[in-house]
Each structure stands twice: as C-alpha cells, then as structure tokens.
Give the backbone structure.
Amino acid sequence: MMNIRNQFPIFQSQPNLVWLDSASSTQKPASVIETANRFYREGYSNIHRGLYPLSERATADFEAVRDAVRSFINAREREEIVFTKGTTESINLVASGLGRLLRAGDSVLVTEMEHHANLVPWQLLAYKGIGVKAIRLNDAGELLLDELESKLTPDVKVFAFTAVSNVLGTINPVHEMIARVRAVRPDLAILVDVAQMVAHAPIDVQAWDCDFLAFSGHKLYGPTGVGVLYAKRDWLERLPPYMGGGDMIRTVTLEKTTFNDIPYKFEAGTPNIEGVIALKPAIEFVQNLGWNEIAAHEHRLLTLATEKLQQLDGLRIIGTAAHKEAVVSFIVDGVHPSDMATLLGQEQICLRASHHCAQPVMQRFNVPATVRASFAVYNSESDVDKLVAGVEMALGMLR
C-alpha cells in the first residue's frame, strides 16, 4: 500500500525498522499522535463534571468517540459502548459481573486457542464453583466445530471465544458460530474477543448478534491504555458495577449508593481522556484505507511469507488454517525461538518469541514457544524478504 509508511513517524526516524509484531501492538500514525499531543497542548481538562468551556469541549470530544465506535462496530446505541483500559479489562468486567449472576455448577465454554485474557478471568470464578470447558483444535489450528452443539450442555451459561487466534492467525467463522449457538441455546451469553480482528476486518455486532464484544485501541493503530467493551443494553442494565468511584454514581450517602446510567455505571474515575480522543483518528485511519484493500494487502504478504519460510530447512509453521490473518508462527529444528528473535532484533527485525499468552495452544502443539511474525498495512514485500534473510542468517549462526 503506497505511502502508508510515510504516515507513521517511527518509520521516518528509524527507516530500517522492520516491525513484525503488530499482533502484539501496532505502530501509530501521525494523526493519532498529533491528536493526543494537541489535547495536552491546547485543550486539556477533565471531563463530564466541569462547568467551563475547556471541560465542555473535552467532554464533547470524548463523547464523540463513543459515537464513532458505535458506528464502527454497528452497535444499536451509543450507551452500549463502555470505555476501558483494554481487551483484558473489558473481559474481566464481563466475567466479574456475570460471575455474580452465575451459580455453583454453571460453566463457561471457551476454545483451546484463547488468549489468557479470555481464559484466566473465567477460571477466577472457580471459587464460586463455576467451571470452564473448551472446544478443541485440529492439527491445522482450526476449531473442531463439530463439537460445538455437543458442548452446549445445560450447565453452560456463557460462550466466550476469540474471532482470530493471536498465535495461529486462524479466523473463526463468528457469524456461523453464534447462529449455531442461538439455534440451540438462544439465551446463552456470548462474548467475542476481537482484539486480533479489529484492525483487519469489519465488525458488525448486530449482524453477529453477540451479547458482548471487546477490543483494544493499541491493536487498532491507536493509543495504549484504551479499550472498548460493547454490550447489549439489557446486559449492561443487569450487570453490577465493576468498580466504584467518581462518575459512576448518581447519589452517595454513608449508608447507600445509587448508580449512574449506562454506560457511565462502568466508567469509574478519571479515564484515559487523551487516549479515547485519539482513538477516533485510529478508526478513521482504517476506514479511509478500506477493508478490501487492507485484506488484499495483508493476504499477499501472508502468502509470500508462508511460501518463502516453508522453503527453509527444518522450519515448521504452526497454524495452517484455510482462513488466516497475516500471522506466521514457526519453530525451527534445533533453534530456540528466543535465540532466533534476539538475533533478528539486532538487525532491527522486530518479532515475537514466546507462548504469546496462549499456553494451551503451545500445549496442543507440544512446543514451548514459537517465533511469530505478524503483518499490518505498513509492511511490504521488502519486509518479507528481510525476514527470510534474517532467519537464514540466524540459522547459519545457531545451527
């Protein structure tokens, strides 16, 4: 995609940087950086409670992002958008709230490919006697969806799953999965983690008919410390507050507190104001590029990287699903992933080597870790060539 890199200041200051860790966090375009800086330089104020023009303007800018997010994911109402610190907090908020509604003996259904952020919060409910079950993976890293209906036993009250695996790149058929669940268990609470999808494909919560959805701004070319929780109005009305403090209350006495309207009931304290405001240009950045163009570009890089890496002796790609985002995880015989990533990092080729906060995936494929290269709109075929050359160089040194 021509001239995309020019919109990212980091590539101007570090022209040789090969950023292949976008599944962890994306780099930021100038529009996002300048929006946050402008807020601090020209318009800083707290929001919602100030009766002076500076606060009123900051509040208007902050709330405008709620409208932008509503449109971005096609939510029905702006009140269904809650701002959090990230995907992790969004899921913890839901797990905490649902945990107070569930009873001992109830279960949560997840998948074997979940990030820890969509697994550990549900396991924390074990103190209440709530269990966790999982849909397994096949050898290609795809969900065994033939198991889906059989897993929906009466004790299962929540289905929480990722739209895209952060390790394998596998794209799950979200719409189909939810439709199948609704046909059997229309009352089941369904949460979708779209952290790894949000910068790569369109999201439509009404078409999907999910109850909850979570993502992070920093994976969408936006700021860190900002996340979104979408939840249907009736669920937000039912769930108890996640945190107590300022702005989430209506009245407080020493004896009793009554809570604010949604979504503010879940937004206690001073938020990451500049981060939320800078999320809007991040959304506009991907919208201006267009989803078809993004998908075509990233798929081309995925295909090229897969073809070239597979030619290297002893290299095995983990995750070969038919439908993938531009993520390539691999291991090499006789080479530890951390050693590989360290050597490539010295050449300014930045990728990830770890269990990627998805240890059940590592256990499924019987590996301690993988090297993961993840691509985004600012990457090019030249980055693929540098990756392959870097791996070949590392192999020459490590084997």
Remarks:
- The chain has two domains: 5-26+291-398, 32-287.
- The two ends are 36 Å apart (CA to CA).
- The first strand starts at residue 18 and ends at 19.
- The chain has 14 helices and 15 strands.
